[in-house]
């Protein structure tokens, strides 16, 4: 596993041992950041179910202003810290050790994010629904204007087109994996009304 582009291009990253954590493939990360390229410079990025931190580190490498990594598995957090240390990263990020649901429910008045990436275990369909419902809740103030929420999931997994105020705008499939892109309904409506 390696950083695809940016200031840490080609640097290798560690992944947690075992099958409990499935890192996002280099190819899928490249696809993701090809879509995010126009909006990543200076962005506030939220990496949920961060695992090794490969996606958030890619965001930092490509110019994101800040990344919050949320991960609860102690082994994954150790690998994430090792990856950040090996790259010499000392600022521009925060690691939240705990559950994604707890973070989303308890973060009040915190940062607003331009991009949110979530990658729970593929088999944990209930995690996808719960996380996307929290992000789509009118009470959630974590999404900045025009923010994107991107879920990596198994291609055959049927995610809903809408979770509260977030609505799927794009689906990209690659091998067995897929990326579903969501935006706030109000942001979509404003875009349509402005055309």
What does this structure look like?
- The chain is an alpha/beta fold and 195 residues long.
- The chain has a single domain, classed as Vaccinia Virus protein VP39 (Rossmann fold, 3-Layer(aba) Sandwich).
- The protein contains 6 helices and 8 strands.
- It has helices spanning 26-40, 54-61, 74-86, 100-106, 125-136, 185-193, and strands spanning 44-48, 66-71, 93-97, 113-118, 143-154, 162-163, 166-174, 177-184.
- An 8-stranded mixed beta sheet has the order 3-2-1-4-5-8-7-6.
- The chain is globular.
- Residues 190-195 have low confidence and may be disordered.
Share of helix among residues? 25-40%
Q: In DSSP terms, counting alpha (H) and pi (I) runs of 4 or more, how many helices?
A: 6
Structural class: alpha/beta
Main sheet summary: 8 strands, mixed
- Tally of domains: 1
Strand order, main sheet: write it out.
3-2-1-4-5-8-7-6
% residues in beta strands? 25-35%
The CATH homologous superfamily is called: Vaccinia Virus protein VP39
Q: From the alpha carbons, calculate the radius of gyration and give it in angstroms.
A: 16 Å
What's the count of strands?
Answer: 8
Q: Overall 3D geometry?
A: globular
Provide the low-confidence segments as ranges: 190-195
- The CATH class is Alpha Beta
Distance between the termini: 41 Å
Please state the second-level CATH architecture: 3-Layer(aba) Sandwich
Indicate the CATH topology. Answer: Rossmann fold
